[in-house]
Amino acid sequence: MEPTDLERYLQSAITEHLDGDASRFEELWERVPGFGQKARDLTRDIGDVQWRDRTLDGWYCVDTGSGYEVYTQERGIKSDTHSFSTGAEATTYFLRSLGYLR
Question: Which of 27, 70, 74, 82 is the most buried (most CB within 10 A)?
Fold first, then answer.
């Protein structure tokens, strides 16, 4: 299967800035200007991924104002909610849960 733009971008950033060590993924927010926004922008091709509270079913990674929540939602019911203090931590968990990071 052909890798998505998101997969290509993540792998390129990990290779270039982290010497291929995906376990250091959160460092990319400090090393690559605009990294978090670019990763969010590229999730548009995944489908069922949301970055703010909405009423749609799918995966969510939401800034709560005091941290971040990652959860799934189906028929308006949130489940598997995990809280994080930073966007880097939340996005790392989010992308690992979706299978884009190993």
Answer: 70
